[in-house]
Amino acid sequence: MEYIFLLFAFVCGLGVKLVGIPPLVGYLVAGFLLNAFGFSATPAITTFANLGITIMLFTIGLKLNLKDLSKREVWAGSIAHTVLWVVVITALLIGAGAVLSALTGQIDWQSAALIAFAFSFSSTVCVVKVLEEAGESKTRHGKLAIGVLVMQDIFAVVFLVVATGKIPSLWAPLLLLIIPLMPVLKRVLNQSGHGELLPLTGFIFALGGYHLFELVNIKGDLGALIFGLLFAPHPKASEMAKSLLAFKDLFLIGFFLSIGLTALPDINMLMMSGLLVLIIPIKFMLFFWLFTRLQLRGRTAYLGGLVLSNYSEFGLIVGALAVSLGMLGEKWLVVLAVTTSISFIFTSIIYRYSHSIYQRIKEPVKKLESPVRLKEDIYPEITRAKILVVGLGRVGIGAFTSLNKIADSRVWGMDADRAKIQRMRKDGMNVINGDGEDVDLWENLDIRHVQLVLLALPSIEDAINITKQLKNAGYSGKIAAIARYEDEVSALADNGVDKVFNFFTEAGLGFAEESLSLVE
């Protein structure tokens, strides 16, 4: 049966991908269609879904810096948004219940507040998936969004404790013993090598954190996240996260299927879900307004607010708990499931066009910015730059290092990962922190003397978008980019890239040329 589910998910995912829509939308559609055919979630699909969420939270922790959570825009923005949202939406729901009682039934203030709270959360699964597909998880707005999601996870734990009366056991303080054990666990990670043992090590740590926290009556997902955080400073953290990527994506298919398989709505429920989807723009406007009041740049507030403008799978947990306690009618659980699914589709589609939309609305957005800039949002400067390498991953670092030997101070590098840039600056390298897809950055960066821009990015969509941003900013030099597959080469060339290097072909050619010196 599970094979049929996965096959159907594959067909739907491939179908929507062919028309330019993210595959996760297809997985959601597959779940609803299977539900309509009379199928329901099996234990195996539920296990897949839970594994996907646990591994995803662990990998988030591996990429997270605790300093990001301590920033005012993260903790203050999260708390303020939750409070304001609950107040505003509670009032709207009570008003809707009075006007549309035939559709919604009477809604008292407690039920309204509970529904509003359930919809205050943004989906960790959806947001992280969208950011990773766009290659923006380490950008300023990406880190902001993930920080808000972590804060919301903390709110979730507090709610579950209060609502269920399930308090942490007396053994919970023993979890602190994990800290002195970390040197041993890190040694285990060091010995795991680079092959098949590495992702298995990640599974053991992620599931170990989950079950340890569950044993002391604390939400297991929080345990997986904290274990990831503890391993984040390790040099192999990034490699372990990459080794888990394919497993996480596969298991998350089970999550999206299970959402659609939860329940099938009738016409009234669909109408109620439609009304609740209509208030998503309020969620975006609240995030945008709060982020700009906290002195974030307009573009960061816009993109951060947009990717967070969806509803969370945690709303289903809140709904199920409320139904079991008799605080909500059973139909609300179906409405929550349908509304959450539609919000996923909304975010995954509209975020795909977020940068092109920003280009059209950037002037009014910038007028809403605070006149005071945060230290992290001051535009960088480059001097005497002749060559600029955008993206300092393994390929970018290699190109940057090689070019430095030739052109020295005339070569600069740029990456969205602030921590990486700080480390490279300490080593005396000419590097700046920046998001290549930020049109405001290019308009404020002096690139008049730059003759060549190298786009060392894994996503050709990002490379194409940056090429357009450079042209719009008046750049007249040459642009080179890398591609992994042959069909990507023509796509980049057609969109203005002057030279495209097929990564595997060029690596093989270089390897051959270097090796020939051994027989000459």
UniProtKB/TrEMBL annotation:
<feature type="transmembrane region" description="Helical">
    <location>
        <begin position="109"/>
        <end position="132"/>
    </location>
</feature>
<feature type="transmembrane region" description="Helical">
    <location>
        <begin position="332"/>
        <end position="353"/>
    </location>
</feature>
<feature type="transmembrane region" description="Helical">
    <location>
        <begin position="245"/>
        <end position="264"/>
    </location>
</feature>
<keyword id="KW-0812">Transmembrane</keyword>
<protein>
    <submittedName>
        <fullName>Cation:proton antiporter</fullName>
    </submittedName>
</protein>
<keyword id="KW-0406">Ion transport</keyword>
<feature type="transmembrane region" description="Helical">
    <location>
        <begin position="270"/>
        <end position="291"/>
    </location>
</feature>
<comment type="similarity">
    <text>Belongs to the monovalent cation:proton antiporter 2 (CPA2) transporter (TC 2.A.37) family.</text>
</comment>
<feature type="transmembrane region" description="Helical">
    <location>
        <begin position="36"/>
        <end position="62"/>
    </location>
</feature>
<feature type="transmembrane region" description="Helical">
    <location>
        <begin position="83"/>
        <end position="103"/>
    </location>
</feature>
<feature type="transmembrane region" description="Helical">
    <location>
        <begin position="169"/>
        <end position="185"/>
    </location>
</feature>
<feature type="transmembrane region" description="Helical">
    <location>
        <begin position="144"/>
        <end position="163"/>
    </location>
</feature>
<dbReference type="InterPro" id="IPR038770">
    <property type="entry name" value="Na+/solute_symporter_sf"/>
</dbReference>
<keyword id="KW-0813">Transport</keyword>
<dbReference type="InterPro" id="IPR036291">
    <property type="entry name" value="NAD(P)-bd_dom_sf"/>
</dbReference>
<keyword id="KW-0472">Membrane</keyword>
<dbReference type="Pfam" id="PF00999">
    <property type="entry name" value="Na_H_Exchanger"/>
</dbReference>
<dbReference type="InterPro" id="IPR006153">
    <property type="entry name" value="Cation/H_exchanger_TM"/>
</dbReference>
<keyword id="KW-0050">Antiport</keyword>
<dbReference type="Pfam" id="PF02254">
    <property type="entry name" value="TrkA_N"/>
</dbReference>
<dbReference type="InterPro" id="IPR003148">
    <property type="entry name" value="RCK_N"/>
</dbReference>
<keyword id="KW-1133">Transmembrane helix</keyword>
<feature type="domain" description="RCK N-terminal">
    <location>
        <begin position="384"/>
        <end position="501"/>
    </location>
</feature>
<feature type="transmembrane region" description="Helical">
    <location>
        <begin position="303"/>
        <end position="326"/>
    </location>
</feature>
